[in-house]
Design brief:
Elements (H helix, E strand, L loop, with lengths): L1 E4 L5 E5 L11 E8 L2 E7 L3 E3 L2 E3 L6 H13 L1 E14 L5 E13 L8 E7 L1 H6 L10 H18 L1
Parallel strand pairs: 3-8
Antiparallel strand pairs: 1-2, 2-7, 3-4, 3-6, 4-5, 4-9, 7-8
Family: Belongs to the Nudix hydrolase family.
Pfam families: NUDIX
Protein name: NUDIX domain-containing protein
Length: about 160
């Protein structure tokens, strides 16, 4: 378990297991790496961030992650796996499930909805991008990137 205070002053608890949950996850986040770079969406208001969003009625968390990645970046994913979850202790606490995935197919980015495009960033570019959304700048994101990178190293041994 990793605990920190986000830039809005809320306590956040990050865990790298599958529960039990103090708050049931209803939001998702996807960490997708391809050819040494991380997939990011460019949100109109928040800035550069990993794709993610809210689970819709009748949808599993995994289905929500796949859908959100596609809606925000026009990238189809495969081999999606549970990675972590975190609870943000706002006035009404919420929980976000975090998945890792691999790229299946990349379509041309046409039009815009919540996002204006996608970026592929190296870890250094990601950590130092000038237009990161607030949650991409927090200690929890750095910890998740550290853990996912460590997991990749173990799999490549």
């Amino acid at each position: 378990m990793f605990t920190f205070i986000d830039e809005n002053g809320y306590k956040v608890v990050l865990r790298f297991d599958q529960g039990p949950f103090e708050v049931e996850p209803r939001h998702v986040l996807a960490l997708v790496q391809h050819k040494g770079k991380w997939l990011c969406a460019v949100h109109k208001e928040r800035g550069v961030e990993f794709p993610g969003g809210k689970q819709e009625e009748g949808e599993t968390l995994l289905q929500a992650a796949v859908r959100e990645v596609y809606e925000e970046t026009q990238v189809h994913v495969k081999d999606i796996e549970w990675f972590a979850y975190y609870v943000v202790h706002t006035e009404t606490p919420f929980c976000k499930a975090v998945f890792t995935a691999k790229v299946k197919d990349i379509e041309s980015f046409v039009g815009e909805y919540e996002t204006t495009g996608r970026l592929w960033l190296t870890i250094d570019e990601l950590l130092h991008h000038p237009n990161l959304s607030f949650y991409m700048r927090d200690e929890g994101m750095k910890k998740m990137l550290e853990e996912v990178s460590h997991g990749e190293e173990k799999r490549n041994d």
